[in-house]
Amino acid sequence: MHRVMPLPATTVPAQAVPAQKVLAPLTDQSQYRQGGRHRRGNAVSWRRCWHVLVMAAVCCAGCGRPQAPQPEGAATQAPAKKFTWPARLSEFDLFESVLPTSPAGSQGSGPFVLAKGVTPYGLNTPLFSDYSWKYRHVRLPDGAQATYHGDAAFDFPDGTVLAKTFAYPDDMRRDDSTVRLIETRVLVKHDGEWQATAYLWNGQQTDAELARAGHVSQVSWIHDDGSPRELDYLVPNVNQCKGCHQTAEHDIMPLGPKGRNLNGDFSYAAGTANQLAHWQATGILAGLDEPIDAAPRAAVWDDTATGDLAARARAYLDVNCAHCHNPAGAARTTGLDLSLTQSEPARIGVWKTPVAAGRGAGGLLFNVVPGKPDESIVLLRIYSLEPQVMMPELGRRMIHDEGVELIRQWIASLDPGAGVPDTPGGVQPNVDSQPVDAG
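RE: above sequence
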């Protein structure tokens, strides 16, 4: 039998108090006893006044602007129910069980036996998160579909659950290494809006508990190069989740599941397949009207077979920086747009000065200096671990050595003579002039 995802508990907003409740006789007269009949008389007078005021309000409710007539037999719209987060991740019914190892290592669906209707997925280029292994899963309501967008997040129906689990193996050199689950971040679409929070896995690795206030976990592992690593891993609180997922209109939105990020192969239990084709075949994706080979595809940042140096560097900056640095993001006023679709050199940062020369600029003049990575603010910020300098501001406590090297090579490859500003002093005016932060 198809398993139906249990809906988390909901609470119904309090209904308006009917007029007869307001007019009900007082049952406790102790507050009026002192002062005798005079105070009791005042109580009766006040109750009569309330009666008059309530009746006046009822009468006036039908006055003023005429209301649109309701069709005969039309149902009254019920008030929206407030979403309440389950106390445990298991209440979402995403996983049948948890395994001690991940069959495909850092790839595939992770150390989970998935519940029916849950689809694992991955991104061509993921956000760097302190070298953690990440496993992504989506569950749509039975019979529902997401709507495809090539360069934007898919439109998902109400009831959709997006989950991303962060884990560390004992030894990253071995796919069969024991995996420790740290947290699962969950996005739920309810009543047309996305909600976000994190769940912290217990020591027995049997379930994860709601962690709206965040948490710090000590983790350690053997890295790819054989060196021991350790980290105070930060599980974000609710406000920190919003810091990345919230748009200029204060809406929370998914970041990863865009057409271009999913247009690649994934290791499913039944074999490797293109993710867009798989979503179409399983009936959870609609609106992809063009051939998959012609659809937008982001390069894999560390795979030279998927794109040249520029394509891989831009894909890396898009995923790691453009959730804020885009025309609708939290850093939109900096004028720096690191979205993959941005083609204007100055918007990408080439010969662009920051709008405010704070600590984040490190005394440097331009975001990107072609041919000179060490004079480029963008490289400085992704290399730094210093607060108010490092970028992204949230989500990492380590330097991504390989990512830094990719961006270094890209900047070094740019033509030093291309787009050199001809304004006095060699400084190009800001694309935007509103001073917010160094960008």
